[in-house]
Amino acid sequence: xxxxxxxxxxxxxxxxxxxxxxxxxxxxxxxxxxxxxxxxxxxxxxxxxxxxxxxxxxxxxxxxxxxxxxxxxxxxxxxxxxxxxxxxxxxxxxxxxxxxxxxxxxxxxxxxxxx
Length: 115
Description:
By secondary structure, the chain is of the alpha+beta class. It has one domain (21-101). The chain is built from 2 helices and 2 strands, in the order E-H-H-E. The chain has helices at 24-53, 58-100; strands at 4-16, 101-113. It starts with a strand and ends with a strand. The relative contact order is 0.28.
Protein backbone atom coordinates (compact mmCIF):
# COMPACT_ATOMS: atom_id res chain seq x y z
CA UNK A 1 0.00 0.00 0.00
CA UNK A 2 1.42 3.35 -0.97
CA UNK A 3 1.40 6.44 1.14
CA UNK A 4 -0.06 9.67 -0.02
CA UNK A 5 0.98 13.20 0.63
CA UNK A 6 -1.03 16.23 -0.21
CA UNK A 7 -0.33 19.68 -1.48
CA UNK A 8 -2.65 22.62 -1.28
CA UNK A 9 -3.44 24.28 -4.55
CA UNK A 10 -5.59 27.22 -5.39
CA UNK A 11 -7.65 28.45 -8.30
CA UNK A 12 -8.62 32.08 -8.70
CA UNK A 13 -11.64 32.94 -10.84
CA UNK A 14 -14.55 35.29 -11.26
CA UNK A 15 -17.96 33.94 -10.33
CA UNK A 16 -21.08 35.38 -11.96
CA UNK A 17 -24.10 35.01 -9.65
CA UNK A 18 -26.77 35.88 -12.20
CA UNK A 19 -26.92 36.39 -15.93
CA UNK A 20 -26.59 39.88 -17.35
CA UNK A 21 -29.70 42.07 -17.54
CA UNK A 22 -29.71 44.91 -20.07
CA UNK A 23 -32.69 46.55 -18.31
CA UNK A 24 -33.95 47.86 -21.63
CA UNK A 25 -37.54 48.25 -20.49
CA UNK A 26 -36.77 50.06 -17.25
CA UNK A 27 -36.33 53.55 -18.69
CA UNK A 28 -39.38 53.04 -20.93
CA UNK A 29 -41.48 52.25 -17.87
CA UNK A 30 -40.16 55.33 -16.08
CA UNK A 31 -40.71 57.56 -19.11
CA UNK A 32 -44.25 56.35 -19.92
CA UNK A 33 -45.96 58.78 -17.47
CA UNK A 34 -43.88 61.61 -18.95
CA UNK A 35 -45.01 60.61 -22.44
CA UNK A 36 -48.60 60.70 -21.18
CA UNK A 37 -48.09 64.22 -19.84
CA UNK A 38 -46.63 65.29 -23.20
CA UNK A 39 -49.69 63.90 -24.98
CA UNK A 40 -51.97 65.83 -22.63
CA UNK A 41 -49.98 69.02 -23.19
CA UNK A 42 -50.22 68.58 -26.96
CA UNK A 43 -53.96 67.96 -26.72
CA UNK A 44 -54.44 71.04 -24.54
CA UNK A 45 -52.29 73.09 -26.92
CA UNK A 46 -54.39 71.98 -29.89
CA UNK A 47 -57.64 72.86 -28.09
CA UNK A 48 -56.25 76.25 -27.09
CA UNK A 49 -55.03 76.91 -30.63
CA UNK A 50 -58.44 76.02 -32.08
CA UNK A 51 -60.14 78.38 -29.66
CA UNK A 52 -57.67 81.21 -30.21
CA UNK A 53 -57.84 80.87 -34.01
CA UNK A 54 -61.42 82.10 -33.76
CA UNK A 55 -60.37 85.07 -31.64
CA UNK A 56 -58.37 88.17 -32.30
CA UNK A 57 -57.17 90.94 -30.12
CA UNK A 58 -54.51 91.73 -27.56
CA UNK A 59 -55.76 89.30 -24.90
CA UNK A 60 -55.85 86.31 -27.24
CA UNK A 61 -52.36 87.17 -28.55
CA UNK A 62 -51.09 87.44 -24.97
CA UNK A 63 -52.63 84.08 -24.05
CA UNK A 64 -51.10 82.47 -27.14
CA UNK A 65 -47.67 83.91 -26.36
CA UNK A 66 -47.81 82.80 -22.72
CA UNK A 67 -48.93 79.32 -23.71
CA UNK A 68 -46.11 78.97 -26.26
CA UNK A 69 -43.52 79.98 -23.63
CA UNK A 70 -44.93 77.63 -20.98
CA UNK A 71 -45.28 74.76 -23.46
CA UNK A 72 -41.66 75.11 -24.57
CA UNK A 73 -40.39 75.16 -20.95
CA UNK A 74 -42.51 72.14 -19.99
CA UNK A 75 -41.40 70.11 -23.01
CA UNK A 76 -37.76 70.97 -22.33
CA UNK A 77 -38.13 69.94 -18.67
CA UNK A 78 -39.79 66.66 -19.60
CA UNK A 79 -37.08 65.95 -22.16
CA UNK A 80 -34.42 66.48 -19.46
CA UNK A 81 -36.32 64.20 -17.06
CA UNK A 82 -36.46 61.45 -19.68
CA UNK A 83 -32.72 61.76 -20.32
CA UNK A 84 -32.05 61.62 -16.57
CA UNK A 85 -34.19 58.48 -16.26
CA UNK A 86 -32.17 56.80 -18.99
CA UNK A 87 -28.94 57.85 -17.27
CA UNK A 88 -30.14 56.62 -13.86
CA UNK A 89 -31.14 53.26 -15.31
CA UNK A 90 -27.69 52.92 -16.90
CA UNK A 91 -26.02 53.80 -13.58
CA UNK A 92 -28.22 51.26 -11.77
CA UNK A 93 -27.35 48.65 -14.41
CA UNK A 94 -23.63 49.32 -13.98
CA UNK A 95 -23.92 48.95 -10.20
CA UNK A 96 -25.85 45.68 -10.45
CA UNK A 97 -23.41 44.32 -13.01
CA UNK A 98 -20.53 45.13 -10.68
CA UNK A 99 -22.29 43.40 -7.78
CA UNK A 100 -23.34 40.47 -9.95
CA UNK A 101 -19.78 39.14 -10.13
CA UNK A 102 -17.32 38.34 -7.40
CA UNK A 103 -13.69 37.34 -7.43
CA UNK A 104 -13.22 34.04 -5.62
CA UNK A 105 -10.26 31.86 -4.72
CA UNK A 106 -10.77 28.14 -4.18
CA UNK A 107 -8.26 26.15 -2.13
CA UNK A 108 -8.12 22.39 -2.39
CA UNK A 109 -5.80 19.57 -1.40
CA UNK A 110 -4.45 17.34 -4.09
CA UNK A 111 -3.36 13.89 -3.07
CA UNK A 112 0.00 12.81 -4.43
CA UNK A 113 1.11 9.21 -4.14
CA UNK A 114 4.48 8.74 -2.48
CA UNK A 115 6.83 6.20 -4.00
